[in-house]
Amino acid sequence: METVALVGAAVLLCVVFGIPLGIWFGKSKRAYRAAEPVLDLMQTLPAFVYLIPIIAFFGTGNPPGILATIIFGMPPVIRLTALGMRGVPESIKEAAVAFGASKWQLLKDVEIPLALPSIMTGVNQTILMCLSMVVIISLIGGGGLGKEILEALQYAAKGPGLLGGFAILFLAMVMDRIVQGAFRREDEKL
To answer: Which of 74, 172, 82, 167 is nearest to 126 (CA)?
Structure first.
């Protein structure tokens, strides 16, 4: 349950901040060009590199672990949301405007539903990136399944290590099914 709480909090924060940023970056090429080096840096730095400044500024435990997970997991949802927003055909947007859609209606009723497959792929990738950080954040005092796997690695305990790994795999599959179920419900509305 501690792993679900850690990953859930990180994914929720990534989605709450990442989707609006992705929408903004999808609509503004200038903003995306300014943010692209930061997103590249967030994705290319090894995960262990995040831990050094986070420990220096925030100490150890679960909150710094969530912060490291957010930094590692947010770029996919931002990039794929921006990609989806840029992929909405101009002709469809022009038709919606011609029929009197306001900017808010255009975003809510046309652009987001058409970009939804890309957005949901970004959410899925963010979940997987956050789950991959579970073991790494155990190095700075994060709990959950990562702590169990770290202890299994330290003592070469194959059984508990495999059980922890399978539990993380099961959690990834469950979270993926939840996201796919939400996507199917949204797709059926269209």
So the answer is: 74
